[in-house]
């Protein structure tokens, strides 16, 4: 077994988090994500997933987040979680370096039975996405046909999923259960305060996310971004806040409600980029590594995964990839916009492929 070889990139950023996509498919069609319903030709199997996770841990990763598309569409999700958990419990195994095993889901498929099976398999934390509190808003932000009626059905399922996760042992007070909401001007900015009120009522931390220019097919325009500062001000006007800060490597600035109503966060990757301490490596469902969410090109790891995983080879290529990393797209975009430059249009993969 290879030894631990923590690695820094060109800007001194350590590899700390692996975001592993299990599928590009999704049961929703959120416009900011733009899933095309197409699965890569060859999905990775459990042995390949475990090799990627092991290599990442040996290079310094301490958190693993399983994503999609919608990861609950993956039949091998629980077996993979269980295999990771077994290795985490072995002190000499590289996976014992994992401090957190998390998952992001839209919640539609998260039944009570599924929530229990995920918890039993070893999942520590689950984040559920919800972009509205009424049928029309949910339908629009989820890309649903059928208007309010379809939106209400999805909303009810997500609210049931929140309860199912709580009952399965995902405790919001420990941060085991959180909500994510993307806010887009012209579509759902009127839902900001209702979403905050829902999260307060549920006792769950909610993180508002600026509408991001991931990929080229979501029609992103700067004027559609509701900035973190705007969002915080709206919340502050309704419920006074106390600023907590942003942990190194974290995506969210955190705030505490002064009345004891819990926590709220904002992810300001557009208006206040946090490239300087970004520690995330993304690997797609077909084994392509991206060192930036906004990256135009990835590096295929298949030569070291097929016909069977080559752990030492994976470590070498992933170490080399990270050491050459100098991505800071959001900072560069913001700097260019500040002097009136128009960014060059480069073809980029959609968020559903990258795993968000």
UniProtKB/TrEMBL annotation:
Entry GO MF terms: 4 iron, 4 sulfur cluster binding; cyclic pyranopterin monophosphate synthase activity; GTP 3',8'-cyclase activity; GTP binding; metal ion binding; molybdopterin molybdotransferase activity
CDD domains in alphabetical order: Radical_SAM (cd01335), Twitch_MoaA (cd21117)
Give all residue intervals belonging to the Radical SAM core domain. Answer: 10-241
Q: Keyword set for this entry?
A: 4Fe-4S, GTP-binding, Iron, Iron-sulfur, Lyase, Metal-binding, Molybdenum cofactor biosynthesis, Nucleotide-binding, S-adenosyl-L-methionine, Transferase
SUPFAM superfamilies attached to this UniProt entry? Radical SAM enzymes
Q: Which GO terms describe its biological process?
A: Mo-molybdopterin cofactor biosynthetic process
State if Cytoplasm is listed as a keyword: no
Which EC number applies?
Answer: 2.10.1.1
> According to the UniProt record, what class of enzyme is this?
transferase
Q: Which InterPro entries match?
A: Aldolase_TIM, MoaA-like, MoaA_twitch, MoCo_biosynth_MoaA/MoaC, rSAM, rSAM_sf
Q: What is this protein called?
A: Molybdenum cofactor biosynthesis protein
Q: What is the lineage of its organism?
A: Bacteria, Bacillati, Cyanobacteriota, Cyanophyceae, Synechococcales
